[in-house]
Every structure is written in structure tokens, then in C-alpha cells.
From TrEMBL:
Pathway the protein takes part in: Amino-acid biosynthesis; L-methionine biosynthesis via de novo pathway; L-methionine from L-homocysteine (MetH route): step 1/1
Pfam families associated with the record: B12-binding (PF02310), B12-binding_2 (PF02607), Pterin_bind (PF00809), S-methyl_trans (PF02574)
Descriptive protein name: Methionine synthase
Biological processes per GO annotation: homocysteine metabolic process; methylation; tetrahydrofolate metabolic process
Reactions performed catalytically: (6S)-5-methyl-5,6,7,8-tetrahydrofolate + L-homocysteine = (6S)-5,6,7,8-tetrahydrofolate + L-methionine
Record-annotated Hcy-binding domain positions: 3-288
Cofactor: methylcob(III)alamin; Zn(2+)
Naturally occurring in which organism (per UniProt): Natronincola ferrireducens
The protein's role, per its UniProt record: Catalyzes the transfer of a methyl group from methyl-cobalamin to homocysteine, yielding enzyme-bound cob(I)alamin and methionine. Subsequently, remethylates the cofactor using methyltetrahydrofolate.
Gene Ontology MF term list: cobalamin binding; metal ion binding; methionine synthase activity
One GO cellular component term noted in the UniProt record for this chain: cytosol
Pterin-binding domain ranges (all copies): 319-563
Domain of life of the source: Bacteria
Family according to the record: Belongs to the methylamine corrinoid protein family. Belongs to the vitamin-B12 dependent methionine synthase family.
Amino acid sequence: MKKTNFINRLKDKILVYDGAMGTMLQKMGLSTNECPELYNLHHKEVIKEIHRQYIEAGCDIIQTNTFGGNKIKLSSYGHGDLVEEINKQAVIIAREAAGEEGLVAGDIGPTGKLLYPLGEVTFEEVYDGFYQQAKALIEAGVDIINIETMSDIREAKAAVMAVRDIGDIPIICTMTFQENLRTLTGSDPETVVTILEAMGVDVIGANCGFGPEMMVEVLKRMQQVSQSPLMVQPNAGLPKLVDGQSIYDMTPEKMVNYVDDLVLAGANIIGGCCGTTPHHLRLIVERVSHLKPIPKKKITFSKLASGTDTLLIGEGHPTRVIGGHINPTAKDYLIQAIKEENMGILTEHAVKQVEAGANIIGINLGVNTQQESRMMKKAITEIQQAVRVPLSIDTVNYDAMEEGLKVYNGKPLLNSTSAKDDALNRVIKLAKGYGASIVGLTLDENGIPERAEDRFKIAEKIVRTAVEQGIRKEDIFIDTLVLTAGAQQHVALECLKAIKLVKERLGVKTLLGVENISHGLPNRGMLNNTFLAMALEAGLDLPIINPYYQSSWYTIKSADVLMGKDKNAEDFVQRFKISNNSDTKIKLEDKTPIEKKPLEELMCIIKNGDKKRALPKVEELIADNIQPIDIINGGIIPALEEIGENYEKQIYFLPQLLLAAETAQHIFQAVKGHVKETTDNSLGTLIIATVKGDIHDIGKNIVSIMLENHGFRVIDLGKNVDNEAIIETAIKERADIIGLSALMTTTMQEMKNISNLLKKKGIEIPIMVGGAVVTDGYAKEIGAHYAADAIQAVKVAKAIMEGKM
């Protein structure tokens, strides 16, 4: 199906997507240990009947039974060799059921694995798995590809890239959010939209996770920053176990009452996820027949994003700033750090610049071009774990630029390209491929023109070429290039004239490396800030500055007040309320790394997830006669407690938590090697497992790592573990606690079975339970303790051992 035809349909009509496949399969006999996708080969009529019921309910789109149809997921059932056969057969079945009028979407779900560095599977492996599946679906004739239930934006990016690399087909991508309205890896709704729009996804949305009430809130936030059609597939409320069966508590009659709110929040497509049936969808079809989609508002501001948060730039927003300190030019200590691959110093300066007020962190590693690609990849991997602001990849080495893009979770700024055809086309291709904004320099084969009009003509070419190749105007920034007033005073103001021309005639955002104006001159700060004020008045959107200079902030924040960018001067008052005579206290923050005490440095290594520096630091501490127990109690535990507190406050998210935990685990293992064998400092023994019939173990693995780091002896039995095996191991190992995980409502019944089995055998071992579908109420019902996440699991386990629970 042509994209334009699909998008045009969404302007005039709210389309209805089908409902749950898994719920229907379970009603028709699917057991917990079965692979649902195998039904495409061995129970074709069952799948066709489910499709037929949704078509009869009036659904415009049905999706193939291929949610777990990628090689990685199928391999967990031992069917990794059946990807093509399963997916193509699924399309044939759906197409027969849909007839001539119905649309068929090829369904692509997650792999169930965490991507490196959080897990073992690489971006390339995930991409290959999605590519193989998407190729089979597209070759078999689907109209649309639906990438759904993604909890990691980077995995979603891999899936989108794979689909797009096969052909021009409409792409829907929906993410799953938690109760804090963030994905598992921390992305909020605005960030999901920002990243996926930049990658050319046609319809963006949310599915699974919870019922329609919270979906309304997700859509409202998406709508504020989105020009794309939105889709929503809520669950039928919350699941409950009744007589061993998973029952969702929202009836069709109750669920349909939310349809109007979903449409007002921006929904163009409405479907159902877990617990929904053809009856739910029939009522939704009837309701939307009386409704029209809400027109999309025109968005003129620009958006950049980290993996977790979005930055809005331009109209209606304060001046944003790029922190330009991570640049080795004239900084010997940064040159040395880059040569030594000391990411700790770069990460520390990223953090310090954000603390100083920078909204974006520029990364320029131009020391050795032979190493730049590898170093860019490494720097971005580590810096994005330490800060939540977007990054600017500052290089004209386009191989290095691409390596950085491969590992970046968000939507970065690519700084930069000239108007030279080869460079311009390469950067545009990278921006489209990975989802990024671009910086165009007013520079061509003839160099930098002196006159503003000539610089404008170059900018015009860059904008025209980028737009023709599919880049939105909001994703284009023009740098009219600052030349030093010390050498070329007569052209200093041409840069500002060019900014005005670009803003007035092209309608794109502007960027400048402001401090270039003062190279070679005394009292640089005064000249820089005067020029900065003039540039802001001319229309500069995004200055690159050294954020450690307080005087630059006086200029920027004052200009925002006077130009109406800071409503009621709220930001100005907040920033400067402590000092009444701020203009006399211009200060440069210390640019060199702060000396830390040994255990403080170890804590920083853990918090930054810096595994490379972890073991050398332990050996250094041991050599300095610091006792292993002091390393654990004074370094590892305080660092993990701080990480845990920040996780609960939503300052950190899963990536930071997991990388810190893994780094702490490396340190803990190294320290244990220096502890006498007779010493037993464990807090207790805990058996942990994912219950029988459940092959999901991401959450369980994270809990296991955190418990071990906090001093528990953890025996991880893995996933899909038999009830008797769990109990036998607990007895053999004299376990103090049994930890159980389940992701599916159909498998959490095993938690109750294990609890009953323990009682039957007269064994009194506390049980701690958790997982996506598990609730505190269910835990109490079966006589267990509930832990919502890894941090809470540590607290609950400690409380059990202390006799407080």
C-alpha cells in the first residue's frame, strides 16, 4: 500500500485496528508452553477464525500472528529456522480472512532481549533479526508493518531501520509505557515521538501496559509535539487470576466509554491489546463511526532528544545552549584523556556542563582521525548514560559520525556539513537513516563568502537539498560561521546579517560558535558576550558556548527576559535570585577534573558504569592497603544506594541502574578474591527463578544482579523452571528467601502453586514475587512479599532478613 494513500485515509477517518491475538488463542486452547506463532503452520483455521471475527466486528486493519516471529524470539522455542515459513504463512492466512477491503499489517514484536551494553545481544544482531522477519512479511504482501510493544527505543530504532531498508511501506511503531509514563529504558512520550518521527515512522503510538485511562494521558503528551498520526491499543483494564484463568476487568461496554477521550487526545487509529476481544472492537467500531480525527496542529519548534527526554528549540521556548567544552582544541588535558581513552574525564565534563546549564552536549574528539570512529562510539555510549540532555556529534569525519549514530539512543544534532554535494548528501543520508537534525555551514567549494547575501545563497542550497531529500525544515540548523574579529573585522557583522536573512527567508533555526569571534584578542569574555547579545537579537537560536563562564548566562538569560522568551522572568529569577550583584562575580568554573578521595572515585566509576576502569581501581585500592570490607561498605554499597535513590526519583532509569549494577558486580567479584575464604559476609541466600512456562527473564536478571551486589548469595535458576526444582534447590542450599518472577498472567498462577506446595511440604521459606503482571494484592493473596522492581526487591529482601516482614 502506498504511504500517501494510507496517511490520507487517516486525515478523514478514524481507523479501527484489531484486538488481542494471544487472548483469543488462549481461549482456543493455547497452553503456556506453546509457541503462538506455530499455530500459523499447524492450526491455520484457528488463526483464520480469529481474524475473521475481528473483520466481522468491523475492524479496518488486522495484524498477522507474528508478534514473536523474529529469529531471536523463535529460537527460544527451538524454531529459529522457521522465520520465513511462519511469517509468510501468517500473511496468507490474514489476507484470506481480510478479503479485498481489509488491510493486513505485518506484526513485529520485541526480541525479549536487552541490547548491549545493557545485555549481550548487539544492535546489529537485533537489526538482522528484524530484517529477516520484515522481509518475509513484505514479500508475502502485507499492506503495513506494525512494530509494537517496544520497551526500548533503541530496539525500536533497529526494527524501523530494518523495515525501511527493505522497501517503502507504511510503518506503525508503538511503545509500551509503565505507570510513570516512561518506557522500561526511560523514554517519555514526547521522546518517543521525537525519535520515531525523525526516522520516518508514519504512525506513532502506545500499546499494552495498561488500560485506556492512562493511554489518554500518553496520547495527550504525544499530541503536543507530534505532527504524525497517532495510534493507541490499550489493554482491557488490569488482569486478575480467577480459577487459574487470566481475566481482564474492563468489559467492552466500559472500555468504549474512553473512545471519545482517546480521539480528543489525538488518536487516528484505535485498537485493542491484552484482554480485548471482537466484542470490544465491535463497540469501538460503532463509536468511532460518529467521530472525526482531530486536525494536527502545525509545529514550528525544533526537537532533539536523548534516549529519555526531549528538548524543544525555537518559537515559544527559551534560548537553548550547546555546551562546547568537550573539544580538544587548546586543551592539553582533553587531548591526553582522548589518547588514553579515559572516558571518565569526558563524562565528568558532560555532567558538569549540564549542571552549569547546558541543554545539549557537543562531542568533538578531533585528535587522531584514525581513532576517531572508535572513540566517538565509545564516548557517546558512556556519556549518554551520564546525562539526560541530547548530544551534538561534532565532526566532519562521517565514518565517525555514523559510528556515533549507531550507538546513540536519541535524536542528536549532526554538526556539520558544508554545501559541497558529497558532504551534504552524506550527512542528509545519515540524518534520515538514523533520525537526526543537521547543521549546515555557509561554506562551499569556494570557502566562506564575505557578504551575508552570498552566505544566504549557500544556506538556501542546503535547505532546498535537505527538504527535497525528505528532511523536515524543523530539523535543519544553519551556521552562518563566525570569523575572528581580530583578523577579519570588516566581515564580523556579515555573520549576523546572514542570520537575519536565514530566519526571514528560509524559516529554519540558526546556530553559531559564538566564541570564535574573539580568537587572538584580549578580554575575550567581554567581546564574546557583546557579540552573543547582538546575535540573539538577530535571531540566533542555538549558541555554542563554554557554559562554565557565568557571564555568558547573564547575557542569555537577560536577553530571554527582554525578548519575551522567559515568561514573567521566571527562569531569570530562579537562576540569579541568590546574587544581587551578579555582574561583578563573573567566574570560570574549574575546568580540570576535581581530585577525589579513593573511595569517592570508585563510587563515580560505579555510577558511570565505567567497567574498564573498575578493576584497575580495585587493584590500586588494595595496593594502598584499603581493606576489602571497606571497599564494599564504603564504595560499592553507598554507590548502589545513591543509584537506587535516583532511580526511585526518576533521575536515573534502567540503563544507568543496570550498567552501575554490572560495574559494581565486577568490582565485587574482584574484591571477593582478596577476602579470606572462611569469611562469610553474605546477608542471606536467595533462590531466584522465572516460573514454569514463562521464558521472560530480563527483570529477573536485573533483580539478581542488584541483590548480589548488595551482599546476598544469589542462586539464579534461570527461566521456565519447574516448581519442584525451585523447592528442591531451596532446601538443598538452605535458602532464606525464594524469589519468583512472571511476565504473563497465564504463568503467574505457578507462584500460587509453589506457595501451596511449600505449605503442603511444611516448609517455611519466605517468597518474594514480582513481574509485569504481578500486583501487591496478588502477592498477599498467595502469602508472598511483593517487589515492584529491583530496588524494591533489595529493600524487601533486607527487611525479610531483619525480621521486619
